[in-house]
Design a protein that fits this description.
Immunoglobulin-like, five-stranded mixed sheet, 3 helices
């Protein structure tokens, strides 16, 4: 009896297991309540996640399979969606795969990217280097072509500190603003000097990546973005042609002018004020033309000049100065007479110095017990002359073109001296003459 009961229990358990297995095999989701089926199906692509095909070739998708813990193989229930691949139109197509089990548990979506490409690889046209004025709104444009024709962009800027490329991000930078950093157009709204740098655009079409670089420099010009007190740099004037011009008497003269540039205001050449002398080629002489300009912040450039010498056909000359003897303490003047040339002369007197040896300048003022005056004129005066001023003198005459010289020897004139013995004899003689004269007068009176 004991074994009969045990046998019946075993038979009952086997029967129940078979019933449960049978029901589970028929429809597990019906047997188990839905809240107990919480596992998601899993989708697996058949083939690669990224496929590249040539334009106008055929494309058949490899599909995907799906497995669920409870529902088993759900591959036939996979829903294919996303883009429809059109091989006649280059581009990037994304196919999606989705499925849910009997308990409405959705699988994680799986995708496949299909790139339909032309026969020509992706390219991007060069971007021309550019100079941008302070405060200007400017845009750089990248033009991509070929490849899949579906492009993504990213602008980058060179960082010397890394060194290397770093992303340009939309938003404020210094006092300027970047916009469109992930598009084909990078805008400066506005541009500031600190944005000056080497930039590049990275273009990706899903298959290839290409780059184009562009140098952006801060241009001289448009300082309106900066407050005027920050513009403290003066313009710079440069002469066109030489600073010294010689014109023959009677010829025509056309001035070559000058150019002016400013860090902020750029080219100021048209604002140059030409002044100074008006060149008259019919009148020999030295003419000085002046050039001046100021920028928008009233910073004045350093004045620049051009000297124009109008000369006669006859070269400059200076007449000889006669040698002279001058007594001690006498006021005397040497005179230089120049002629021809430009007729505008400068003078300088020199004296020979045996100690150098060579010529040295004669300067106005005291020398020994005498005085020099007019040393840079046509007349050199001794006021008065002393023995130590004796020497060889020279006058240098310059007319802006030529230089000529005239020399003159100045000698100290000595006054003859009488010996002391002769002086006493003369005194005795004079006294005798005087005494004799007195005696003669007395005799005449008595007579």
């Amino acid at each position: 009896m004991k074994y009969t009961v045990k046998f019946m229990v075993v038979i009952t358990l086997v029967f129940l297991w078979c019933v449960i297995s049978s029901l589970a095999s028929a429809d597990s989701s019906d047997f188990l309540s839905n809240p107990l089926d919480t596992g998601f199906p899993v989708i697996t692509r058949t083939g690669a996640a990224l496929v590249t095909i040539q334009k106008d070739t055929s494309y058949t998708d490899a599909g995907a399979v799906a497995i669920d813990t409870c529902d088993g193989d759900l591959s036939t229930g996979v829903v294919v969606g996303g883009d429809t691949v059109d091989t006649s139109s280059p581009g990037i197509y994304v196919i999606t795969y989705n499925v849910s089990d009997g308990a409405s548990n959705a699988a994680a979506e799986v995708t496949r990217t299909v790139n339909v490409v032309t026969g020509i690889a992706l390219t991007v046209a060069p971007v021309a280097d550019i100079s941008i004025g302070e405060g200007a709104n400017t845009t750089l444009t990248a033009v991509a072509s070929e490849g899949t024709t579906v492009y993504t962009y990213q602008w980058q800027v060179w960082n010397d500190s890394i060194p290397g490329w770093e992303l340009v991000l939309d938003g404020v930078f210094d006092a300027g603003v970047y916009a469109g950093a992930m598009t084909s157009t990078l805008s400066f709204e506005p541009f500031t000097a600190l944005m000056e740098d080497l930039y590049r655009v990275e273009v990706h079409d899903g298959v290839d990546t290409v780059y184009a670089e562009v140098m952006v420099t801060h241009a001289a010009g448009s300082c309106s973005f900066l407050s005027a007190p920050l513009d403290t740099g003066p313009p710079v004037i440069l002469l066109t042609a030489g600073s010294f011009v010689t014109v023959e008497y009677g010829d025509s003269y056309v001035d070559a002018g000058a150019v002016a540039t400013d860090t902020c205001d750029g080219d100021l050449s048209t604002g140059i004020v030409v002044g100074g002398d008006t060149v008259d080629a019919s009148s020999p002489g030295i003419y000085v033309i002046t050039y001046n300009v100021s920028d928008g912040a009233s910073n004045a450039a350093a004045e620049v000049t051009r000297t124009v010498n109008v000369v006669t056909a006859v070269a400059l000359t200076v007449a000889p100065v006669a040698d002279i003897l001058i007594g001690e303490g006498v006021n005397t003047t040497l005179i230089a007479v120049a002629s021809e040339g430009t007729t505008v002369y400068t003078y300088q007197w020199y004296v020979w110095n045996d100690g150098i040896p060579g010529w040295e300048l004669v300067l106005d003022g005291a020398f020994d017990a005498g005085i020099y005056a007019g040393t840079a004129t046509s007349t050199l005066s001794f006021e008065p002359f002393t023995a130590l001023m004796e020497g060889l003198y020279r006058v240098e005459v310059y007319d802006g073109v030529d230089t000529v010289y005239a020399e003159v020897t100045v000698t100290h004139m000595e006054v003859p001296t009488v010996p002391a013995a002769n002086i006493s004899g003369l005194v005795v003689l004079l006294l005798a003459i005087v005494f004799g004269g007195v005696l003669v007068l007395r005799c005449k009176t008595q007579a």
